[in-house]
Specification:
2 domains, mainly alpha
């Protein structure tokens, strides 16, 4: 192989390789961006949706709030049955229901 044939082959193969790399990088960039965009939007939706539901007070959180005073009364009655009513009245005066 002479020098001119080598240069011709080298130039063509380099050019072909350059276009293949460019095409590959373009496709990979597009696919990565689409995946990243999907994941980012999903994360924003989950965080935003959860924040909104928490702000408006979803039914799941209200059930727990309704259970807490009942659990507190049960615990107070189990710990000190004689003074339970007095303690619960005192708590009701200090922290009235909304």
């Amino acid at each position: 192989m002479d020098y001119i044939t080598f240069l011709f082959w080298f130039d063509n193969s380099t050019l072909v390789l350059w276009f293949r790399i460019r095409k590959y990088c373009g496709i990979e960039f597009k696919d990565t961006f689409e995946n990243w965009q999907s994941e980012f939007l999903q994360l924003i939706w989950q965080v935003g949706g959860l924040t909104y539901l928490w702000y408006i007070g979803s039914p799941q959180s209200k059930e727990e709030e309704e259970r807490n005073p009942e659990m507190l009364q049960w615990i107070v009655k189990k710990l000190d049955p004689q003074k339970a009513e007095e303690c619960l009245k005192e708590m009701e005066e200090k922290y009235p229901k909304k």
